[in-house]
Design brief:
about 90 residues; single chain; 5 helices; mainly alpha; disordered N terminus
Length: about 90
């Protein structure tokens, strides 16, 4: 993913809903931001939460194995794309 392509982050920034009034949306946003490789600190700063709160949410709601598979798939795709560029030279 390139700059500005953190999946849910762009959507969150454009969202007109006051996230403070929608805790379920904030939890979903936190999960998606984590899946988009933001750190717990970055998520906490974005949502105005403590890092401890983000950590607890991730422990409860995030399926780490699914996220790790997704990250591995993205890395594999980048490696394959890089290999195609090298062969084209």
């Amino acid at each position: 993913m390139g700059p500005g392509q953190h999946g849910g982050l762009d959507s969150l920034n454009r969202c007109a809903i006051d996230m403070a009034q929608w805790p379920p949306l904030r939890g979903t946003a936190a999960t998606r931001l984590y899946a988009a490789d933001l750190t717990e600190r970055e998520i906490a700063e974005t949502l105005g939460w403590s890092e401890n709160r983000v950590e607890q949410l991730i422990k409860v709601y995030v399926n780490r194995s699914a996220i790790m598979r997704e990250r591995a798939n993205r890395i594999s795709a980048q490696v394959r794309a890089s290999g195609r560029k090298d062969r084209a030279r």
